[in-house]
Specification:
The structure holds two protein chains of two kinds. By secondary structure, chain A is mainly β. Chain A is built from no helices and twelve strands. The chains are: A mainly beta, B mainly beta.
Chain lengths: ~120, ~110
């Protein structure tokens, strides 16, 4: 069974501040994939970033960066120089790679409010 | 860019009625899913569908629910005898294949059971 924990329920930051969203996961699979999704107030789920379990290299993509640490089962997501349009609920998600295309398990989400 | 299309965007129904939520996945996707999100809560897996069969379902997906892909394009979720607690946003999703391909979600159908 898989589990994704997002301990931060809500975060408020002032525009232009950096913000890090935490994600901790549990899985028995040795190979798996991690994702971050954004759900703006309009309600759709938008894919942001992904990471494979066998690649712990952290990356930056524009204002987004992520820190994957297999030793602590964490996959944290950072937004640099936050903007009001970043206000949304952010979901961390996990998919094991144990044959076929397994279901994606979502965390409970972190609501980010960026204050102008 | 191709999109997953869901209809209707909002469905209001009375308790006990049957509803059918419709989804048109992206044409080259192979695996299809329904997820549910009760207002303000987490996104919950309902069912996955591959090769015209259910491949996995959650404990939420009981006999009240069914899915089918009758014509090779539309992917439907039927909820029989709706209950108040079925009120939620229902998301259809698809994925092209294996690896780290992310799920592509539709915009959702908000189901309100009164």
């Amino acid at each position: 069974a898989q589990k994704v924990t997002q301990a931060q329920t809500e975060i408020s930051v002032v525009e232009k501040e950096d913000v890090t969203l935490d994600c901790v996961y549990e899985t028995r699979d040795t190979t798996y994939y991690l994702f971050w999704y954004k759900q703006p107030p309009s309600g759709e789920l938008v894919f942001l970033i992904r990471r494979n379990s066998f690649d712990e290299q952290n990356e930056i993509s524009g204002r987004y960066s992520w820190n994957f640490q297999k030793s602590t089962s964490s996959f944290n997501f950072t937004i640099t120089a936050s903007q009001v349009v970043d206000s949304a609920v952010y979901f961390c998600a996990l998919r094991p790679n144990s044959g076929g295309y397994q279901k994606v398990t979502f965390g409970t989400g972190t609501k980010l409010q960026v204050i102008p | 860019e191709p999109e997953v299309t869901q209809t209707p965007s909002h469905q209001v129904t009375q308790m006990g009625q049957e509803v059918i939520l419709r989804c048109v996945p992206i044409s080259n996707h192979l695996y299809f899913y329904w997820y549910r999100q009760i207002l303000g809560q987490k996104v919950e897996f309902l069912v996955s569908f591959y090769n015209n069969e259910i491949s996995e379902k959650s404990e939420i997906f009981d006999d009240q629910f069914s899915v089918e892909r009758p014509d090779g394009s539309n992917f439907t979720l039927k909820i029989r005898s709706t209950k108040l607690e079925d009120s939620a946003m229902y998301f259809c999703a698809g994925v092209q294949g294996f690896g780290d391909s992310p799920l592509h979600f539709g915009n959702g159908t908000r189901l309100t059971v009164t």
